[in-house]
Amino acid sequence: MTAPYLAPATLRSLAHTAPFWISFLLPPLAVIAAIHGGWTLVLMPLCAWWLFWGFDLATGLEKANADPETPDSALTGYRLITTLWVPVQFVTLFGLIWYAAPATHLTGWEKGWLFFGVGILTGTIGLNYAHELMHQTNRLERSLADLLLAMVLYSHFRTEHLLVHHRHVATPRDAVTARYNEGFHRYFPRVLRQCPPSAFRAEAAMLARRGRPWYHRSNPIWRYLALQAAMLALAVALGGWTGLGLFLLQAITAIWQLELANYVEHYGLTRRHLGDGRYEHVRPHHSWNAAHKASNWLLINLQRHSDHHYRPDRRFPLLQNYEEDEAPQLPYGYPVMTVAAMIPPLWRRVMNPRVRAWRRRYYPDIEDWKPYFKGGLPMPR
């Protein structure tokens, strides 16, 4: 990261800010699909996955960095993206439940495909924006993150991500660090099974340190449950049992999209075990990165993942790019890599040689890697 920083005027310019607003072009596609059905139902998955692969090929890589000390006052245009998305997603999701649940021009399959597309929207964009918002110190932004998470029934993610993932990434304690040779279809049910109780234990431990029981009213789990119950009740009120089914379909699709990204971000990467349950500090080489310009527009620089782990509260326009000699790089952006992850033989063919090269580069002295991906290491203390 030796290149000069972007000039402040460039960072504030419409030309630099506007591409990150591209996600707001996606909700109208869901509305079009709801009105017309048929072939328009493929618009959402097509644009979210394959169109951005084409955009990445056309736009290339973005390696320029903004000054990480840029004050929030200079980032208003970027902060509005994540703030305004919350009401846009809320209206889109529940407006479509109200419209589509009783619709007679859509078959049951078409309604299912419609809300599969909505789940891609609420997962690829909504949960990614929730991730950005939950890391901020501003209470309003954290509350907005809670709303986005509740819309897909995944509220515990805030606790698990902040208290477990960032502290224990690339160790056996972190469920969402995908193990070497672990296919996504084994990874996904494991994460669904392990993360909720892990989040509960993390909050209970925090309360215990304050001398409070797990059931104390300050436990955010109660807020999570109340918000999720409100979302379910609203879905039923607007669309009856059909509305509830459509809401649940988009929720599981969104969770699937989130965990696909989590799977890609740290696949096969591990921190060195120092003995007695101690692990080295998190370094840039413990995250996969991608500098592909268009997919970073869509995902608000999530692919600059090493810097996110270095400074979790750093706002997305200030995240720094790491070069090949500093952190491992993916061959394509997340839209392509998450599709590859759904095909385990293809995924292993693409990624396993890169993991082995990563081991030779950063840990040439470790000869036996089996304990690192076969559960042979102790939990971090």
Fold topology:
Blueprint lengths: L7 H5 L1 H4 L9 H10 L6 H17 L16 H25 L7 H27 L4 H12 L5 H13 L15 H26 L10 H47 L6 E3 L2 E2 L13 H6 L6 H6 L23 H8 L2 H19 L7 H4 L8
Antiparallel strand pairs: 1-2
Report the structural category: mainly alpha
Shape summary:
globular
> How many H/I helices?
15
Q: Give me the count of strands.
A: 2
Taking the alpha carbons of the first and last residues, their distance comes to: 33 Å
- Percentage of residues in DSSP E strands: under 5%
Q: Give the uncertain stretches in residue-range form.
A: none
| Main sheet characteristics | 2 strands, antiparallel
Spatial order of the strands in the main sheet? 1-2
Counting structural domains, the number is 1
Q: Give the ordered list of helices and strands.
A: HHHHHHHHHHEEHHHHH
Query: How confident is the prediction overall: mean pLDDT?
Result: 95
Helix coverage percent of residues?
55-70%
Q: What gyration radius follows from the Cα positions, in whole Å?
A: 21 Å
GO molecular function: metal ion binding; monooxygenase activity
Subcellular location: Cell inner membrane
Domain Fatty acid desaturase: 112-338
Membrane topology: Multi-pass membrane protein
